[in-house]
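Could you show me some protein's one-letter sequence and the numbers that encode its backbone in two labelled lines?

___
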Amino acid sequence: MGIDERSINGQLGLTGITAQVQPVVLTAGMMRAAEVLGTEFRLGSITGLLRRGEIVVGVDREGEMIEGNAVVIAMGAMVNASGAMLPFRPCSG
């Protein structure tokens, strides 16, 4: 079963009627699309990043080293909780 590209890249609404997206609905839709494409989700807390030089190649999930071909950081304003692990400027809602 494939994913219609519009479900990932399409317009979410019209600028005249759209004020915001519903985070739970958007996140659930993105997770379903990723699962159809073969993504495996694992619950847990990320305690560190695995790097090769300056390149992030995976994560340390509570002592389990998990490498991957992509690391997606989707924390929003919670990025402040990442401490020194990530080189982001402070963010607020």
Notes: Residues 44-77 form one domain.
